[in-house]
Amino acid sequence: MLQALILAASIAFTEADANFAWECASNLVERCTPRDAGTVRGKLAANWILDTATIHGADIRRDVFRAMTPLGERTMTNLYCEFESDPKADWVVVMSHFDTKPHTGCPGANDGASTTGLLMALARILSCSGIPKGNLMLLWTDGEECMYGYGPNDGFWGSNRAAEMFVRKGRNVRAAICLDMLGDRDLKVTVPANSDDTLARIAVHAARRAGLGARFVTRIREDMKDDHVAFAMRGWKAIDLIDFDYGSSPGRNDWWHTSSDTIDKVSVDSLLKSGRLVAEMLNLVL
Ligand SMILES: [Zn+2]
Hints:
globular, 8 helices, binds zinc ion, alpha/beta
């Protein structure tokens, strides 16, 4: 009976979780900058995320793979944490990349680390409480960032690898939710046009239910190249939640992929709002 009650409970994201997410992001930046995919420091970042999440009770798996890049073959690492309550049910995937933009020295505090921390907080929450129902994978992707320009062998290595894993295992994905740049202290969450329409409506509804207001999430006309595309390409519903206005004044985006993407631009309050949005989306889609 008690277990039934626990299983039925909804997922909640608290201020303590937001603080934990920020600490994780801050530590990742401090210890592992840069963490370009296929480099020793990229591997160090994966190890640090795995070790830290494990200390906090999460059962994290590592998927090490070889990827062809413009600079030859490189070794990359995806991390994932599975919560499976029904082997026959579809899967929900929530993902964030943790790598930094190659050759820029960008610390990726908002672009990579912030949502990595958010996923680590979710892993900690769910490892204690379990999920209400269905199956969920939290996925930290390596190699989201391209080296020169997005193409068949440049960028999205981790998300393509993970999506291919779902195909190989014969698993169906009900919803793939990509989180990117959601720690910005001046947060404006957008849903790019190349996101699934139903999931976009769910995101707006979730924001309202989480008390963030219906305008917290805005749908935009532009497409976005991001990790959700690997899942959308394979016929699954996928959405990108991103704040792609990241700079010293609106529209400049001068903190993106530069040395200015530092942890002081990431706020606990934004991580709290993003975390509540994602938790509420999970309550709706699981
Ligand atoms: Zn980036």
